[in-house]
Amino acid sequence: MADDASWFGVPTPRIDGVAKVTGAARYGSDEPIAHPAFAYLVTSSISRGRIADMKLERAREVPGVLDILHHGNVGSQAKPPPSMTGDKATNTLETDRIEHDGQIIAVVVAETFEAAREAAHKVQVDYAVELPSASFDSSGVTAEPKKQKENPKVGDAASALAGAEVKIDAHYSTPTQHHNPIELFTTTCIWDGPKLTIYEPSQFMWGLKAAVAKQLDMDPANIRTVSRFVGGAFGSRGGTTSRTAWIAIAARRLGRPVKLVATRSQGFTIATYRAETRQHVQLAASRDGKLVALSHEGWEVTSRPSGYNVGGVDTTARMYACPNIATAVNVVHADRNTPGFMRAPAETPYMFALESGMDELAYALNMDPVALRLVNDTQTDPVSGLPFSSRSLTACYDQAAERFGWSRRDHKPGSMRDGDWLIGWGCATACYPTNIAPCAIRLSVTPDGRATVQMAAHEIGTGAYTTIGLTVARALGLKLNDVVVMLGDSDLPPVPVAGGSNNTASTLNVAAKACEQVRDRLAAAAVADHESVFTGADPKGLRLSDGMLVGDNRHEPLAKALGRVTGGALEIHAENVPEGLPPTAIGSLYKGTATMLRGGSRKDVTTYAFGAHFVEVRVNSRTREIRTPRVVSAFAAGNIVNPTTAHSQFMGGVIWGLSSALHEATEVDPKTARYVNNNLADYMVPVNADVPEIDIIMVPEKDERVNPLGVKGIGEIGIVGMNAAVANAVFHATGKRVRDLPIRIEKLI
Ligand code: MOS
Known about the structure:
Blueprint: H1 17-22, E1 37-43, E2 49-55, H2 57-60, E3 65-70, H3 71-74, E4 97-98, E5 104-110, H4 113-121, E6 124-129, E7 142-145, E8 153-154, H5 157-162, E9 166-174, E10 186-192, E11 195-199, H6 205-216, E12 223-226, H7 243-254, E13 258-261, H8 267-270, E14 277-285, E15 291-302, H9 313-316, E16 325-333, H10 347-365, H11 369-375, H12 393-404, E17 416-418, E18 421-433, E19 439-446, E20 450-454, H13 464-476, E21 483-486, H14 503-528, E22 543-545, E23 548-551, E24 554-557, H15 558-563, E25 570-576, H16 585-590, E26 608-620, E27 626-636, H17 643-662, E28 693-698, H18 722-734
Parallel strand pairs: 1-13, 11-12, 15-16, 20-21, 27-28
Antiparallel strand pairs: 1-5, 2-4, 2-6, 3-5, 7-16, 8-16, 9-14, 10-11, 10-13, 14-15, 17-18, 18-26, 19-20, 19-25, 22-23, 23-24, 26-27
Helix pairs in contact: 10-18, 13-14, 17-18
The protein binds dioxothiomolybdenum(VI) ion.
Dioxothiomolybdenum(VI) ion (MOS) binds near residues 234, 238 and 342.
C-alpha cells in the first residue's frame, strides 16, 4: 500500500472538465439512440384513494401515440423496486390504489415527446377519493418507534437531567426538502433480444442492474446500466425507483427504444426527498460546561408502507463527551411518497437540533459557544468507548475562529450593530461518519506507458474521474494524462453506491491495491530475470516512478519491465474488502448490495470527519431581512486527494447549509397532501446574490487507522451544522431563537 502520502494535496483541474463545459460529456438522455419512441408519465392528482375508471380514447386519438401502459394492461409485469428499508414500496402501475400525490399511474408512448405529452394530458381518470393525511398534525397519521437497530443509550439520562445544575429543553423542526438536481430523472431502455441496456443517471450502477433484474425476473447478466456522468444526485439516485422497469416494459412491448425525461414537477413525487422532522433535545451540564446528560428524540414522516427514517441520533450521541445519553426515533406514516437519502440525510436535520441546543446551553451557562464545544471535545466515542481514529475538532474551531475574528465577538444578543443592521455571529460543529465498502477494479498497463482504469464508479459531480486518475498515476509513476479512466458502466467491475460519502475511500483503496499488485508482479519478474539490472535485488525495494521501475540505485523503463510478463502488458482485476467486513461482502456487491463498514459501527475505532462553521448574519432592524455576508468553515477529513475538487465539495455543502437555514422548504398542502411549490420558480434556493464570501480551511489530518490511504469522505460534511450556525447567529443578532427551519422574515417579526 502507499508508503507515503506526499502526493496528496496537489490541486488538479478535473480531467473531465473540458468534456463537461463543451457539452461532449454524455449524460443519460444525451446518449444517441436510433429511432427512439418517447414516454411521458401520467401521475395521480389525488393522494389517497383508488382509480375508479381510466378513459384512454381521447389520448389514443392523438396522432403518433403508440402505446399506453397502465395497471389494467401491464400491472402484473413488474414487481415494485426493493425498498431501502426492506419493507414495501409505494405503488405505481401494479394496482389501482393511490398512495400519494404524483404517483405514476400510466405511461404514454408516442413518436414524439410532444405527442406523448399531449396524449398524457388527455388521459381522463375518475378517482374514488379518500381523505389523505399530509404530515405530523393531520388526522389519520400513525406513529411508531423505528424498527431498525437500537438507538444509542449510555448511563441514566433521565436521572442526570433531573438533578442537573444547568439544562435546556427544546423542540426543533425541519421541513420537507427536495434535491432538484439539474439533470432531470430520465430513463432510456433498449432491448437487443434478451439483453436490456438502461441509460439512467444513477449513484449505484450494479444496484440498479440487480434491482431491475429482480423486478422483471431477469438474469442480471442480461442487463447493462450506463451512467457515465450524472448531473447531480445528492442521494436522489441511490435507490432504484419504479419508472425504470416500466420504461423497460414499454420498450419491450414496442420492440423499439423508449426514452423518458420526466418533468421537473414529476421529480418531486417519482423520486425520494428529505422528510420533515420534529425533534426534542434536552441537555444538562455542570456549571463548568461539562455535559452530564444528552437526550435526543426524533420523529420523521414517511409513506404508509415504508418505515424509512434517517435516525440521526446515531451521530448526535457521539458528538461530545457525556456520561448519560438517551435517544429515540419514531416514524410517522402519512399519505406521502417514500422519502430517502438527501445530502447528509441524518446529520443535516439532527445536527440542526443538537447544535442549536448547544448554543442554547451556552447561553444558559453564560459561556462562549466555542468554549462549550471545546470543553466537551473528546477522543473517545462516548457511545461505544472506542477511540476515534482521528478527531481534529478543536483544531477546526481554533483555525476557523482565528480566521473569522471570533475573539472580537460580544456574547450578548443584540449587542453588535452596524447602522440599521443587527449583526450576529454564530458557530456550529460539522461532522460526518467515514464509511467504506467493498469495491472492485480492472487495471491494465501497456508498454506505451499508459494505464487504463475500469470500474463502475459514479461521477455525480464530485470529481471521481480525477481522484481515481490521480491515485493510479501516482502509484504507477505515470503522468495523469497517461491514465485513462472509464467509469459509469455496469459492464465494468462493481463499485458500491455513491452514498454515505464512501466512494472516494472505497474506489481509491482498491485502486491503490491494484497498483500494488502491478508493482509486485513487475518487481518479482525483474528480480528473477538473470539478465536484468535488478538481478538479486530485494523486490520489496522496487517501485514505479517517472515511467521507470526503480530501486536499489538501479532503474529500467516500464516497457522493459512489462516485457517480462505475458504479452508485454498487465491486466489486474483487484477486489478490496475493508478490514472489519466479512469476506462475503464482495459477493454481495456483485449481487447489487453494498455492505458498508460504517463510521459508528466499527469494532476497532469510530471514524468520523469533523469541522467547524462560523457565520455572520445581518438582520435589518426595520424589515428583518436576513443577509449572510461571510462564512468561515474549517474541516479535517484525513488525506485530501485533490484540493481543487475538495474545496468545491466543502463550499457546495456550506451553500446548501445556508439554503437549509434560510431558503428551502417543500410546502405540503395540509388538506390534499400535495406538494405546492413543485418547481424551481417557487422552491427557494440561494442564488449568487445570496451566497457570501465563503472561506474554506482544510486542516491537515493524518489518519492511519481509518483506512490504508487515510481518506475520509467529504461529500456531505459541508452541509452539516451550517443551518444551526445560521440560527445561532440569528439569535445572537436579534435575541430571537428560531427552532423551526427555514428561518424566514416572518419568524423574526
Ligand atoms: Mo448521499 S445523500 O448518502 O447519496
